[in-house]
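For the sake of transparency, this paper describes our internal protein records without simplification. Because each token names a local backbone shape, the row as a whole describes the fold. One such record is reproduced below, unchanged from the form in which we store it:
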Amino acid sequence: MKVGFVSLGMGSLPLDEVLEAAQTAGCEVMELNGRPTVHRNLWAEPIDYEKIKAQIAQSGVLPSSLGGYSNFAQLTDEALAEQVEQFVGYCRVAKEMGIPIVRAFAGDEMEGHTLDELYPRIVEGFKAVVEQVADWGLKIGIENHGRLINNGDQLYSLVKEVDSPILGITLDTGNFCWAGHSIETAHRFFEKLAPMVVNVHVKDGKFIDGEWVLFPAGRGDIDLPWLLKLLSAQGYDGPVVSEYEGKADFLASTTESVAYLRGLRDGIEK
């Protein structure tokens, strides 16, 4: 496992400052966000891939995943096709950059429409994507994100139904609780999804007066030592990246989280 952070937390800053922060925080890897406007229009066309790759290589912090965006919960063929094309665009950036994993979202809630109604479109969208990028050398990881399908049982079924060797899960350790699930339920979801995990975002937190409150890794109630051991036992050797979204200082909290996660990793891999 390689430990790092998600660059979106510094999305308003240019890439050189992000890489410097990653080095300061002790990151080995990072999830590089793929929005065109992030890091001062880093991905605005025409993209100078060689310049970006050289800048990253000089830092020594490897881009382990690309933060892509998708919403396959669409009502029309045209809208779904647009989303598929958009996500394939993120995959194309990852391919050009040599980034092996692309984070994906399943879809957003839509007023007046249920998951049962939208689910077939989500399946169709992912099937279309994996068919187009099957031989690109990528893995796609669906994140447990938002409120439409932020449920481990449903995500498990989604990956099984799409049935592609390149499709798995980006496991966000805090998002199940953010969506209202108990810590015990989140841990059950972790165990069920563990064989499908291709990417890990680490958030830690506690329920305080019924509200999910985020803390640096190791200070909350998510059993991160157990989770990393579970993933290791499944043969997982991918990225484990801090995604601190709490109210304390981002860099200080991220540095603390990265140090904690590296300690857990090192203890497992000895």
Remarks:
- The chain has ten helices and ten strands.
- The chain has a mean pLDDT of 97.
- Residues 2-269 form a domain with the TIM Barrel fold (CATH 3.20.20.150).
